[in-house]
TrEMBL record:
PANTHER family: RNA-SPLICING LIGASE RTCB. SUPFAM superfamilies: Hypothetical protein PH1602 (SSF103365). The keyword Metal-binding applies. It comes from the Bacteria. Keywords: GTP-binding, Ligase, Manganese, Metal-binding, Nucleotide-binding, RNA repair. Its cofactor is Mn(2+). It comes from Massilia soli. It is an enzyme of class 6 (ligase). This is 3'-phosphate/5'-hydroxy nucleic acid ligase. Its EC number is 6.5.1.8. The keyword GTP-binding applies. Pfam families: RtcB (PF01139).
Length: 412
């Protein structure tokens, strides 16, 4: 006897089905409306798959998997192209960490530029989130990117003036982070979350606007203008796939460079020799790529979702103060071999700042060496869904390999 599926289905007239792995977790009505809008697009293939961390996004929900034939939606990929996670297990254990975790956090903050300087007319200094003098790891990484970028800039000259080289190996702000974690056996893991930084934002923003211009030019009405798409066979479509592919490569190398500098920072504080990458994962969760599903070659956009092919390792982080997971994919075809990219927000940043105080943040991050000030209240754990409920809802998509708990967290 076949067990009941662990997903729900929404069928709307004139739209593709929506399959949701959200049992036991809240889904806001506005997110369901966004999903319905997306499912009505004529080029959606089979169905839209919805992960348990789903929440309202720009145009398309964060936590959704959108398979398409003959078109791509730039706003569904978003402006943090290639944003994702990297984690590496070390031979260190909890006993090897210094008594002063604040010292360790400080070393990491000095090794990896993070945050963003205020964008005001009065501010004239360099962006604190960029390199003033980049280390050799940045140069080595940029060599893998430069030639392709020059070709993209030949077609799109305005991209040349973006923060590209100076942002490689930097963290950014918002929900991006660097963490030192312990697994269930007490081994130390290094984990970080970032994407394609300023250059990815510029690429995403430019092609989102070009897609909107195409819609106006061809008098195409959409339920949401942020669902503007680029059609296969057009120059904009080809140029976007080239640029987005490069930005995803930038994001992956960005995380690799940060990891190198994170390890170097650890060695300045911990005298004991240690190895890293005993187990390692580097995965996107905002991206688009060609894949084969149900016998067809399709473009799969994962907006806040991770590839979870059978046997593939991925990372599902919680929030500040909550546990995270290294997972192994089960290759569930109905989810287009995908899983969630995290816990998912249950309230906006504005609402979190309105509702919670610094004292709440201090209590929620007890035992974690991290910032505990008003500027990070919007990242308080209570602004996110219960990670245990999220993991239970996707039990047919992934299995847990390691459970991690952070002891140090660096936020932009």
């Amino acid at each position: 006897m076949t067990p009941d599926p662990t997903y729900d289905v929404i069928n709307n007239e004139g739209a593709r089905p929506i399959k949701l792995w959200t049992s036991g977790v809240p889904v806001e009505q506005s997110a369901k409306q966004q999903l319905s809008n997306t499912a009505r697009l004529p080029f959606i293939y089979k169905h839209v798959a919805v992960m348990p961390d789903v929440h309202l996004g720009k145009g398309s929900t964060i936590g959704s998997v959108i398979p398409t034939l003959g078109a791509v939606i730039p706003a569904a990929v978003g402006v943090d192209i290639g944003c994702g996670m990297m984690a590496a297990k070390t031979t260190l254990t909890a006993n090897d960490l210094p008594d002063s975790l604040a010292r360790l956090r400080s070393a990491i903050e000095q090794a990896i530029p993070h945050g963003m300087s205020p964008r005001t007319r009065s501010f004239k200094g360099p962006d604190k989130g960029s390199w003033s003098k980049a280390p050799s790891a940045v140069d080595a990484g940029w060599l893998q990117l430069k030639d392709e970028f020059d070709e993209i800039c030949r077609k799109r000259p305005t991209l040349k003036n973006t923060n590209n080289y100076k942002h490689l190996g930097t963290l950014g702000s918002g929900n991006h982070f660097v963490e030192v974690c312990l697994d269930e056996q007490g081994f130390v893991w290094l984990m970080l979350h970032s994407g394609s930084r300023g250059v990815g934002n510029a690429i995403g923003t430019q092609f989102i606007e070009l897609a909107k211009q195409d819609m106006r030019k061809h008098h195409i009405n959409l339920p949401d203008q942020d669902l503007a798409y680029l059609s296969e066979g057009t120059q904009h479509f080809d140029d976007y796939l080239e640029a987005v592919g490069w930005a995803q490569k930038f994001a992956r190398i960005n995380r690799e460079v940060m990891m190198q500098n994170l390890i170097a920072a650890m060695r300045t504080v911990i005298a004991k020799p240690f190895d890293t990458h005993i187990e390692a994962v580097n995965c996107h969760h905002n991206y688009v790529q060609r894949e084969r599903h149900f016998g067809r070659d399709v473009l799969v956009t994962r907006k806040g979702a991770v590839s979870a092919r059978a046997g593939e390792l991925g990372i599902i982080p919680g929030s500040m103060g909550a546990k995270s997971f290294i997972v192994r994919g089960k290759g569930n075809p109905e989810s287009f071999n995908s899983c969630s990219h995290g816990a998912g927000r249950i309230m906006s940043r504005t609402e979190a700042r309105r509702r919670f105080t610094v004292e709440d943040q201090v209590g929620a991050t007890k035992g974690v060496e991290c910032r505990k000030d008003a500027a990070v209240i919007d990242e308080i754990p209570m602004a996110y869904k219960d990670i245990d409920a999220v993991m239970h809802a996707q039990r047919e998509l992934v299995e847990v390999v390691h459970t991690l708990k952070q002891v140090v967290c660096v936020k932009g």
